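Following up on my earlier message about FE2/S2 (inorganic) cluster. Here are the inputs again, as you asked, copied directly from the submission form:
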Amino acid sequence: MKIQFQLNGKPVQAEIQPDTILLDLVRKMGCKSVKRGCETSNCGLCTVWMDEKPVLSCSVLAARAEGRRITTLEGLEKEAQEAGRYLAEEGGEQCGFCSPGFLMNVLAMERELDSPDEEEIKEYLAGNLCRCSGYMSQLRAVKRYLNRRKEG
Amino acid sequence: MIQAKEYVRPSSLEEAYQLCRRRSSVVAGGMMWLKMENIQKQTIIDLSGLGLAGIEEDEEQFRIGAMTTLRMLETHPGLNQEFDGIFRECTRHIVGVQFRNGATVGGSIYGRFGFSDILTCLLALDAYVELYYGGVMPLAQFAAIPRSITERNILVRILIKKDGRRAAYRTVRRASTDFPLLACCVAKKGGQWQISLGARPQRAKAVVISENEESCGAEGWEEQEAIRIAKEGVKAFSFGSNLRGSGEYRRVLAELLIRRLARQLQGQGEAGSGMGSGREQSKNGTMTESDQSRKEDNRR
Ligand SMILES: Cc1cc2nc3c(=O)[nH]c(=O)nc-3n(C[C@H](O)[C@H](O)[C@H](O)COP(=O)(O)OP(=O)(O)OC[C@H]3O[C@@H](n4cnc5c(N)ncnc54)[C@H](O)[C@@H]3O)c2cc1C
Ligand code: FES
Ligand code: FES
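Thanks, got it. Here's what our run produced:
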């Protein structure tokens, strides 16, 4: 079957199977930042936005993308680079496998929450697992990133 | 992984229902659970074209469409205002924001999972389910029916009356986004306490206990009443063991949770406390086990 949707701002068409998963489709279409880190809807590595809301692309049928706006890290290059720089500086990027999904959720949080405190940040990002960092460096990076205008 | 040969997004409930009567089909809510099941089907029926993702509120009730996501429950001001923030409290520990933007209330209730926070919460509110075939029935009745009997139907909405009840919710989890080890919701309406316990680890159910009016007013009576309700309450439930904890441990925790939630509700009085208290409750609403033992230590 054929579907049409927006991928990172551009209208696209794709030929899919009825049971194709969104994660596999966007990877096939070149968005290799999207990773699969688990089989149980649990790790957050596959996070993409559907109409600006962060979702787990491993658990969404590609057919549901019809008519929707799908955004991956490839579509947020500038922001992703800036946030990624804080992550690297704070040592929050070890193997880096979790970073794209993590950044997608950080950028979604920045849009959804107004000056979140530490508890709110932790709660929003709790669904992004990382095997390497222990989360402290990530938390420091996120706080600095959110305060970057003050930091100058 | 779920496999299917055909994908259909019906534009009417009747069409969805007719399709779902076939054994070779499967209804998709948020897909979060389904996608893990190793099944092969002819047809996936996607309910996302029926306008069922949304919460309607009027003077008397809330009507929650089956495709409403857990995140929508979590962030809905009206629902959280009416029920003291418990919708935020019962959803916020479920995996992560991205997950809750996908998982639906329909899938959660239809699945009737033993660990379900959502089922535990809604049972304390005397909610109703609206089924396409069979109409409206009390959630308690629906929750008690084995899945095999209610198979091949469509859950359309959840209905919750605004009956002025106050409610409070808490869980114990081994880690903050894990399945609950125990889930507890206590509600108070007039002279009636309603207690719902889930993840025992069996499916949630609720019991009603009447307030002891005679004790009213004596010194320290509120604490005494909370202790009594908790003791009476746990007697009405059975508790089992699994990897997360033993039945005996659950029973002890249940009594403690009921007592605390009852105290919390007594503190709030009967009417309008709203979002403010909901937020406060939720900031420290869930105990992890270490919090809990710390608190107990402080008392000694
Ligand atoms: C890793 C993981 C962790 C979880 N942790 C928790 C937790 O801590 N607490 C908690 O409460 N829940 C938890 N859940 C359950 C979750 O919140 C949802 O309840 C679950 O995913 C089902 O919702 P869904 O929308 O994804 O339904 P689906 O997976 O789409 O469907 C579930 C079942 O319901 C049927 N169905 C769905 N919608 C309808 C409908 N409208 N009418 C008829 N049948 C329907 C489907 O055919 C299927 O059999 C967890 C789930 C996962 C996968
Ligand atoms: S791949 Fe782990 S949540 Fe999607
Ligand atoms: S840096 Fe390796 S998983 Fe997060």
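One observation from looking it over: Chain B has 13 helices and 13 strands. Hope that helps, and feel free to reply on this thread.
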